[in-house]
Amino acid sequence: MKRRTFIKNTAASSAFLTLGGLSLSSFTSTDVKKITILHTNDVHSYIDPFPKDHPRNPNMGGVARRAALIENIRQENPNVLLLDAGDIFQGTPYFNYYGGELEFKLMSMMKYDVATIGNHDYDNGLEGLLAQLPHAKFDFVSSNYDFKNTILDGYIKPYKILTIDGVKIGIFGLGVALDGLVDKKNCKETVYNDPIEIATDMSQKLKHEHKCDLVICLSHIGFKYKEDPNKVCDLILANKTKDIDLIIGGHTHTFLDKPVIEKNSEGKEVLINQVGCYGLNLGRIDFYVTSDKKVASQGKSIVV
Question: 75: Cβ–Cβ under 8 A, 6 or more apart, which residues?
Answer without folding.
Answer: none
